[in-house]
Amino acid sequence: MRIHLTAAFVCMYSTFVRLRFSSMMPLLKKIDRLFFGRLIDSYPWLLEREILPSCESLLDVGCGSLSPIYPFSSKINYTMGVDGFAPSIEKSKALHIHNDYTLMNILELDKHFEPKSYDCVIASDLIEHLHKKDGLKLLENMERIARKKVIVFTPNGFLPQSEYDGNVYQIHHSGWEIGEMQKFGYKVIGVGGWKPLRGERSEPRWKPTPLWARISFLTQPFTTKNPKHAFQILCVKDMR
C-alpha cells in the first residue's frame, strides 16, 4: 500500500511541476525577450532585413513545415513553397505561410520555373542535405531563377546529422565553407552564435540546455560580423 501511495504522490507531483512550468512559459518568454531581444530570433530577423522591402516575390526551396520566413511572409506580395516531402508541405499549408505550394524534386527547379521569374530565391537548411554535385546544381538553378537575390542558409562546414521525424531527407551529405561561398560571389553573415556551443540539430552541446542556449544568444553579435566563428552561415548573392 505504501509503495502505491508513494508512486501516486510522485505521479501527482510530476504533473503539478509540468503544469506549473507550462503556466510560467509566457512569463519566461517575456523575460527572454526583455534581456535578449532579437538575439533569440536573429536568423529570421537577418533574413527579413535581406529580403524586404526590395523583393516582392519569393521562391522558398525546401520550405519544410515551418519556414524561417513565417514571421514576415505576409509582408511579401507572393511566395511559393517548394518541398519534396508531402507531410512538411501539409503542415506549412495549415499555417498559411505561402501563397502557393509545389510538391516536387528540388533538383528539378529548371523544369518548373522560368529564368528570372522570382525576385528572391532562398534555400534554408537545405543544401547540406544534398551531395556536393547536387548542391552545386541547386545553386545554379536558384541563380538562374532569381532576379534580385539568392539566399542560402546552412551550417558552417560539415555538421553530421541523421534521419529523424520519419524524414530521410534530414540526413546531411555535404558541408559548405565560408571561403567556398565567397568564391561563388556570396557575402557571408554569421548566425547561431559561437560554433563550439551547438551540435546536431542546432541543440546546445551541454546541459542545462536553457542556460547554454542563452549563452549562445549572447555570442551572436560577435559571430554576425565574424562568420568563421559562427555555427551557421547566411549567404547572400546579389543578382542585379
How would you sum up this structure, described in words?
This protein is an alpha/beta fold and 240 residues long. The chain has a domain at 43-193 and 231-238: Vaccinia Virus protein VP39 (Rossmann fold), CATH 3.40.50. It contains seven helices and seven strands, in the order H-H-E-E-H-E-H-E-H-E-H-E-H-E.
Set down the secondary structure blueprint.
Elements: H1 2-36, H2 42-51, E1 57-61, E2 78-83, H3 86-95, E3 100-103, H4 109-112, E4 118-124, H5 132-145, E5 146-155, H6 178-183, E6 187-194, H7 209-225, E7 230-238
Question: How big a fraction of the residues is strand?
Answer: 15-25%
CATH superfamily of the domain at 43-193 and 231-238: Vaccinia Virus protein VP39
- Biggest sheet record: 7 strands, mixed
User: Helical element count?
Assistant: 7
- Taken from the alpha-carbon principal axes, the silhouette is globular
CATH fold group of the domain at 43-193 and 231-238: Rossmann fold
Unreliable residue stretches: 2-21
CATH hierarchy: architecture of the domain at 43-193 and 231-238: 3-Layer(aba) Sandwich
Mean pLDDT across the residues is: 88
Number of β-strand runs: 7
What structural class is derived from the secondary structure elements?
alpha/beta
End-to-end gap: 77 Å
Query: What is the radius of gyration computed over CA atoms, rounded to a whole number of angstroms?
Result: 20 Å
Order of helices and strands: HHEEHEHEHEHEHE
